[in-house]
Amino acid sequence: MLIRCSESKTRPSQFEGKHALVFGRDEHGRTGMWIVCGACERRDFATFKPQINPIAVTQRWTRLGWAVVRDGEKATCPKCQESKNMRKHSEEATGKHGDDAKVIQHPAHSIARPPTTPPSAPRPVTPPVSATSQPEPSPALDAGGRPSPEAARALRDMYDLLDAHFQVETGLYTEGWSDEAIAGKTRLDVGTVAFYRDAAFGPTVNPRVRELEALISGLEDRFREEMAASAGLETRVREDAARLAAEAVRLSEEAAAIKTMRENLADDMRGRIDVLRHEVARLARWEAEQRREGR
Asked: This protein's superkingdom (predicted)?
């Protein structure tokens, strides 16, 4: 079922109010959008990623001949655009150039001669050219100023290949694919592929940069692990130091207690020795007195 962007709860926010763009899946299951002509309701489908820039959408449909107003609020298909341009030119020629639009009388009705200049066709949007890049060659245009069927098919194939092989999250192609490979498959210029890939899917990233980022990330993880291990070791050392400090305090207290005990024991022994000496002296005096009395 097709879902209008303005009615979908999961629509890309950058497409809110873009009623000419309808989002969904085609009969092949591919995710993308339809563009709907406001005049004849013609619908054309193209694959797009949800992250695409609305400007890139406008550029793509404009290159295919569509007239897109305000990045998708309104749209007119190439056929209705051509008819509108022809009517506008005919009206201008009739109103402003009386001599150029001579009226030929006919038995049944009058026919206004069409203007001598062809109707204007929508100008295809070409990508800007930087000072370091070559101009992008425009796809071949048909007589109406629209891309030829071959060019339109090449652009569709380019978007399909980008959708299948370019990884928006990493900015890398899958193995074996590149702007050059897609250009070779579609016969488009490499600059054309690079421009639309950059506008619709994002810039590419050098694989070496991703390798270095992964290496840096690995080193950062290892650094965090080493820091966590060293913090654990520091905690254990501090705990051991605190335990040893507590043991030292206990031993110091025991040594002080032993010293006090020795001092008390020494005092007690000195007291006992003094008592014994006093007793020996008393006995000696008594014996001396006994000997004097016996004589």
From this structure: Bacteria
Segment among 74-78, 96-100, 170-174, 263-267 with least mean pLDDT: 96-100
Phi, psi dihedrals of residue 292, rounded to the nearest 5°: -65, -40
Rounded-to-integer distance, Cα 131 and Cα 145, Å: 28
The confidence band for 140, taking pLDDT boundaries of 50, 70 and 90, is: low
Kind of pairing, strands 21-25 and 3-4?
Answer: antiparallel
Q: Is residue 188 part of a domain?
A: yes
What is the pLDDT, as a whole number, of residue 93? 55
Is 282 within a domain? no
The per-residue pLDDT for range 187-213, each reduced to its tens digit, is 999 998 999 898 888 888 877 877 888
CA distance 19 to 72: 7
Q: How far apart, in whole angstroms, are the C-alpha atoms of residue 203 and residue 193?
A: 12
Quick one: which of 121, 119, 60, 53 has its CA closest to 92? 119
Encoding tokens for residue 14? 């950058």
Residues 158/182, Cβ–Cβ less than 8 Å:
yes
Domain interval for residue 162: 130-205
Bridge partner residues of 36 (DSSP): 43
> Is the domain of 4 the same as that of 60?
yes
pTM (2 d.p.): 0.32
